[in-house]
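Q: What does the predicted 3D structure of R-spondin 4 look like?
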Amino acid sequence: MHLRLLAFFTLINSTVMLSQTSRKLSASRDVTEDCKGCLECSGDNGCLKCPEKLFLFIRREGMRQQGSCLHACPAGHFGLRGQDVNRCIKCKTPNCERCFSKDFCMKCKVGFLLFKGKCLSDCPEGTVPHLTDCVEGCELGFWGEWSPCSHNERSCGQRWGSQSRDRELSRRGPDEATACPPQSETRRCRLKKRCPGAEKRKNEKKNGRKKGRKQRKPQVTATVTAQASATVTKRAGAVVTEPPGGT
């Protein structure tokens, strides 16, 4: 009896120890995955310190912070080297994709133009857009005339169309040929809904139908007149040929 109880307790103790060991191994594997390339690591927060050539990037997920060691900082961050650790710092300039420092942008997000480290939706006065930057020092001339209003190369048949005009440089040197391209703008314009040729064809078709109806009316009248004359003639003949002393 005592031997059976001893064996039973020994089995329970072994099961508990195996379960604890399994949990420790699982936690160790998770920590190992989060601590790849780290010099110092925490099971809760990931990397705390990176090798000399790598940058420590801290990703925030709600209240939790998770560190990782990267060769290059992600978009919207720049690398700042320090004595103890190199860190990835977030860019403070709005709409910036890559920055040199927290307040000086080097590349803007799509739809924005770079000018003196800032990301703008439109270039300031005295500058022109070129690729992804605003270029200054271009002396622009006057705007040209608006092009004819059209829609798919047609000047009528639609309610709205578009027209454009260009603005050339007043002076163009060899260095300005690519950095200062001509400007252009487009605006909406009103079209003639009916094309003149189509209106003429419509009127000709309408007049043709009216003429056809007029030509058909005399024929009908002549037919009716002829039928009436024949009826009268028959009746007259009947009166002439009636024998005397009839009714």
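A (community wiki): The structure tokens above were generated from the sequence. The longest strand covers residues 160-169. The chain has three helices and 15 strands.
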